[in-house]
Design goal:
This protein is of the alpha/beta class. It is built from ten helices and eight strands.
């Protein structure tokens, strides 16, 4: 087994200065990122998803993992509002907390492009992402067609569907309606709201069969469902800033590549993508269902490939924590790289 020194891949911060975004201005905008490997190798861009920080990306990075830093130059980006890049929780007044402006996917991609130019990246071999990361991959392919050669969307979509928006409003409402959220002006993190947020979200994260088969016991880690919801989902959300979560939801909820160009015509927008795409929904995903992905891929018959992850883990199949799902994705991504490399020759 090969060894890679992850300690050398520390979080860096690119300072944009005054940055105009969808909802106004971030006076001193910062993009947090990490790099892995030799800058002379082909570049893989790997942005974060909802509820993820940069260290979580290392699930897929390593000599024996999907993205090998001995073969690729890997750049991971933190979304605005994830607590590492500029966010409600780390921006000083007067743009702190609930005063932080809304940020779009386009704002994130433009900022990431600026960082890549700073790093001297001439071309992106592949943009890959899970969930919100996958939506960013779609945006990259539309916004910078001459810069992106491939993109991989894992449990994501080009446009956030109406049903997906309805799902988002559930945990968001549980958070903002809590007695301790105080319209975002809380002095300490709203524990009641964050706990409720986690419980509402939990029921959407996995497929129904996952619960039926009692995977929430996690091999004996939890004795029952109640302890799983508290230990995994309440505890997980308590690590986050509430305003960060709300602002991230706005980015997700308004995701739609067709607003960038083509006047809200999704078919026209997607059919114009020239990069090669691998679209990988989970069979049991409740809010990025494979049916939505099938429709989007049908608009790109010559450039995109649909491969459904056969998993009961729902949306969470795409984060790679379940070994069989991770192995399946690894195999399909390697096939995709091989197929697209052959077609370029």
């Amino acid at each position: 087994m090969s060894f890679f020194d992850f300690s050398a891949s520390k979080t860096r911060h690119y300072h944009h200065g005054r940055l105009r975004v969808e909802g106004g201005i971030i006076p001193e905008a910062i993009t947090a990122y990490r790099t892995y490997g030799d800058p002379n190798n082909p570049c893989i861009v790997y942005p974060t998803c909802y509820g993820a920080r940069l260290d979580s990306q290392e699930t897929f990075i390593g000599p024996d993992k999907i993205f090998n830093p001995e073969k690729y130059y890997i750049v991971t980006f933190a979304l605005f509002s994830n607590g590492e890049s500029s966010s409600p929780s780390n921006t000083p007044a007067p743009y702190n907390g609930p005063y932080f402006p809304n940020v779009s996917y386009q704002d994130n991609i433009h900022a990431q492009y600026t960082v890549l130019q700073h790093l001297g990246v001439q071309k992106i071999h592949t943009v890959v992402g899970f969930s919100m990361g996958g939506q960013q991959a779609y945006h990259w392919a539309v916004m910078y067609p001459d810069y992106v050669e491939r993109y991989i969307v894992i449990c994501g979509s080009a446009r956030t569907s109406d049903h997906n928006k309805c799902f988002i409003e559930g945990p968001k409402a549980a958070l903002v309606a809590s007695r301790d959220f105080e319209n975002g002006h809380y002095k300490t993190q709203p524990q009641h709201g964050l706990r409720a947020f986690g419980r509402v979200y939990c029921g959407w994260a996995y497929g129904q069969a996952w619960f039926r088969e009692k995977h929430y016991l996690m091999g004996g880690e939890y004795p029952d469902l109640e302890n799983f919801m508290r230990g995994q989902w309440e505890a997980g959300q308590l690590l986050w800033d509430a305003n960060d979560l709300v602002t991230l939801f706005h980015t997700w909820e308004t995701g739609d590549v067709s607003v960038i160009r083509d006047g809200d015509n999704l078919e026209k927008c997607l059919s114009s993508i020239t990069a090669r795409g691998l679209i990988m929904p989970s069979k049991t995903d409740l809010y990025f269902p494979p049916e939505d992905c099938e429709t989007e891929v049908s608009y790109m018959p010559n450039t995109a490939k649909l491969v459904v992850i056969p998993s009961v883990w729902g949306h969470m199949a795409g984060n790679g924590r379940n070994l069989p799902d991770r192995q399946f994705m690894h195999e399909e991504i390697m096939k995709f790289f091989e197929e697209t490399s052959k077609s370029e020759k």
